[in-house]
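hey so u asked for the seq, here:
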Amino acid sequence: MVEVKLFSGTQSRYLAEKIADFYGYSLGDITLQRFSDGEMQPVINESVRGAYVFLIQSSFSPSDNLMELLLTIDAAKRASAGYITAVMPYFGYARQDRKDKSRVPISAKLVANLLQAAGAHRVMTMDLHADQIQGFFDIPVDHLRSEAIFIPYLQKQNMDAVIFASPDVGGVKRARTYAKFFGCDLVICDKERKRANEVAGITVIGEVKDADVILVDDLIDTAGTLCKAADALMAKGARSVRAICSHPVLSGKAYENIANSSLKELIVCDTIPLQTESPKIKVLSTAKLFAKAIRNTHEHRSISALFVEG
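ran it, structure tokens below
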């Protein structure tokens, strides 16, 4: 069988080391050199000729992370790697997936083009902001789903009268997956925005009195929407409100907003490293799931078999 090589970008090494450990391999030898002006030059310090190469790097802020990944893909291609997979636990710029106003970019499509132009043969990521982003690629996309991580955790919590909630209309499909699995009701928080990252108000659609509500979202940025949704649910009579979010972007006053909110607990994945610890935030690792997905890819086995269907 063709040799497998796992490499990590600079900012995702904390996760890549755990993935490699679960996979049973050591990370490959790679260094990032910089010129005095900050220009990057990744150097792969071992042969990758003919190998299955998996490059692990999320594209969270700053944009250097994406640039480093693109340059490393190019280095692997020029070193005659047999098959290159960009493993991006968090796919940045995914929120810009359409033209919702005049004269704006479709940034998710641009990033897809860049990855393909650099030489990636495949992309592996988790919980894209919109499923249809997979259609921006002309190469295979392995779209991992975080319910394989969150569902086992929630099953151990022994909560009564659970109801799942979507913090906005766009996330209903995501929340419905959990509601269907647990046989629970679903409610929707209809939000009205003034501008990006600023919510004017939230209306709860559905009954939550005396329920343990779990909000479901793909990412949490400033935490404004999530915290307002939690407050609105508590005001409607919920007994407690938790939230599960795959990607903890957590910018601006996010940590302060979470600390001062009605949220009892925020459960996130480690696709992005936390900037600081918080007693309300619980981090679950994606390493084992990505290791399994990498092995299945290499051995030409099913990826969908790793998830709950429905």
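The two ends are 34 Å apart (CA to CA). The first strand starts at residue 4 and ends at 8.
lmk if thats what u needed
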